Each structure stands twice: as structure tokens, then as C-alpha cells.
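hey m, so remember when u said the C-alpha cells were messed up on ur end? i reran from scratch. heres the input so u can diff it against urs
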Amino acid sequence: MESRDPDPQLDRVDSLAADLELASASSTSLSSILTADDSRSPTSSSGEFSRTTTSSSGEIPAFLPPSGEEIRPPAAVVRPKCVGRNNKGVTWGFTSVIGRRREMEDAVAVIPGFMARTCDHVGGCTAPGSRTSSEISPVHFFGVYDGHGGSQVAKYCAERMHEVIAQEWDRETVDGCEWQRRWETTFLVGFEKADSEVLTEAVAPEMVGSTAVVVVLSGCQIITSNCGDSRAVLCRGTETIPLTVDQKPDREDELKRIEGEGGKVINWNGARVLGVLAMSRAIGDRYLRPWIIPVPEITFTARTDEDECLILASDGLWDVMTNEEVGEVARHILRRRRRSMSSSTDDISAAQAVADHLTEIAYGRNSSDNISIIVVDLKTKRKRQPRQ
């Protein structure tokens, strides 16, 4: 395979025109479609399980460069501010368990502040041109990767994908390229590059692949990129908003694409490409090209003051719980813990409590797959009035 040299003008964007059109069309059509090692191993003949869970939580602090004292506008002047600036950092938690599978093939990545940029530079600022939009602030990265045929590709993505995305974003882009188009190009090139590296660096055999659901969180935007059937949702007020749509072989547009390339979708324990793979896009899986492609679908969601949390998870959760059920559980736990303000008796964060509880529910409902969940609390630093 011919090696690629970095090109500061991103000439590769032209060669990816078809993919970019596909990703743009896919993300545009979403609104009409929308809807360290762990184990649970048998310890007795009675079917009881012992469990070791990988989980972690943390707080992502706000990043404020030294800029002197803020000059406040006159009281009569109301100036818009970046939505995300109302939160002085975000808190996250995750779990990743093998469940009832024999091998752990999931991997997760939480990279706080993987980039530091002004909101205007990232794009999609809710207050363009304001003072806050020109302040440097962190951009966070979250990813869930569900491997199949082995764990190699998922682990590689967890270690490498955020680096590739940051590198591609910093490359010179076409003049006049709008911010959404720039992110689409970044993710398209980034996913393709990660896919190519899996082959050129002999990360895994051709029959190994992985899903990839990634969220880039800036002060004002939630940017989601997805390949496969892992999923991301946003809890906003009383709503649970899907940020991705599972890329299944029998999804109308995916079925048309696969059959248009001469492939077949066979129902074998569910719809599968050639009767083998139960998803239509993934990183890796070279033996199923051109039907399995590493082209992500990308969505952009402006943050609001009503946002509660983000949830990314592998299908070990979604196979046994609906978006609405997951959202209800998350809202209930988050609001209960915020009201109680009893952190002194419990060291785990609200986000970690949600991730733990969802994992327990999925396992209790006999999920047969690995279960990996990331929860990002978008309201953790809001000022709350103590209960009287």
C-alpha cells in the first residue's frame, strides 16, 4: 500500500469528496431517522457470578489562561456568553465490564482537554464575537470502541484516535471552509487514517474490527462521530435525544449502499453483511470491503442550559435498554444526588453513580455482551441552593 505524506493544504479532502458527501448526507438525514481488564466469571455451578469492574471517574476543571481581571459590562447591557462558560468544568465517570462474554473486546477513552482552543476557533459558539468566545478553554474527548473478532482494533483506537483527530484539526484547511465542514473533514480523514494504520502497522488481522462512537465537547458544541452500533445520547431537560443512529445492515440507506456495491445482507441471528457482521460501518474488517466502510456519520448539537448529561455506550447496554429508559435512570440519579448534596458520605461522583447503576441494570437484564459506558455530567458545577 502506498504511504501517505502529510499535505499542509489537505489535498486529500478532494479525494474524500464522495465520503464527505456521504457523511454530510448521513448526518443531515439523522433527524428523519433518529430514533483495566474486567471480568465476571462463573464461580459456582449455581450460576452465580463474581465481578471485577473497571470504572473510573474524575472532574475536568475549567482552564482559564491568565488574562487579568475581567471587565464587567454596565448592568444595563446584557451581553451573550458561551453556554459552556456557565459550567466551571465537567465531571465524568465510566464503567467497562466483560459481562457474560469470554473475552473483553471493548475499550474506552476519556481525554480531558485534548485540545485547548478559543470557542470561536472550534466553531459553533453561541455568542460569536463575545469576550468569552475569544478565551482559550479546553475541548474534551470521549470515545467508546466495541471490538469484534478480537480486542486489538478497539484498544488501538482508544490509544490513538484522539491524537489523530487533534492532528487533523490542526492541519491547514481549505480557505473559507466553514467550521462544520472542517470538523466533518477532520473526522473523515481521521477515521480513515486510523483504519489505514490498523493495516499498515499490522495492529490486527483483517478479520478484526471495532465500532467507534466519539464525542468532542467544547464550551458550546457537542460534536459526535459514529461508526457502527455503539451509541451516544444527550439528556436535556425531560428529553433523551439520540446523537447517533445505529449503522445496521438492514437500515434502509445502508442496505441500498451495500447491495449497490454487490454485497448481500443475510438474516442470521439478525441482519448481517454476508451473514457475518451485524453492523455496516466499522474500523478494520478489511475482508468485508467495500461493504464495511470506516466512514463516520457526524452530528452537531449546540449546548443549552437544560443539558443534564451525555451517555456513550457499547451495545451491551443498548441491547437491553432503550434510549428513554437510560435517560430516565440518568436523570433520576443525577437530580437525586444534586438535591441531597451529601457528597461528604459518598466519594463517587454523580456521573460515576449513573454509569455504575446502568451497568448493573444491563447485567441484571442478561446482557450477553461486554458493557462499556461513559457518563459526562454537564451540570456539575452549577450553583445550587442548599435545602432549608
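this time it looks ok to me. Residues 12-63+79-377 form a domain with the Phosphatase 2c; domain 1 fold (CATH 3.60.40.10). if urs says something different then somethings off w ur setup not the seq
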